[in-house]
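A quick aside before the break. I want you to see a complete sequence-to-structure record at least once, exactly as it would be stored in a machine-readable document. Don't worry about memorizing anything.
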Amino acid sequence: MVTRSDARIRAISTLRDATKEPKFDYFKSHLDLQMQAASAWVAAAEGKRNDAIDMLRRAADSEDILGKHPVSPGAFVPIREQLGTLLLEIGQPSEAQREFEAALKIYPGRFKGLYGAAQAAEQAGDNENASRYYTKLSAQTSKAGDSRDELNHVRKFLSAQGKAADSNGVASARE
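That is the input. The structure line, written in tokens, reads:
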């Protein structure tokens, strides 16, 4: 059975193949990897989580090898971040944290990379790294308002961590 997603992926392939100029080969390679990622998300939606993880991992490894183009801003959504997101969704925060951290090495300072790494660390009980990533994200977005739920979560987490640190300081002073 051909799904709407399959048809869309094939349509993108047709458009990609229509471009024959060698100067676009790098971008066509990235597009191929993004289509693999899209297929992985389709597999995940169909309940084939392990297949989806394997597909995203292979595509992320290939994207790492391909690297970031020196002129272009990079991937819209790095595949390694997508893998981290899927791992978070299925309850594997430690593995997700590793993927987000790997993505941050290639694409440092990305909102989704920092937030994903922090969220994964928080869910894994690694509050030290969660605080570190949330603090970086907070500094990066200090002039942003309350327009994003993620930023409200960042502020709430850091506030709770600050209160916990203050409570520990009071308890230590009493001892």
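Two observations worth writing down. DSSP finds eight helices and no strands in the chain. Residues 170-175 have pLDDT under 50 and may be disordered. We'll return to this after the break.
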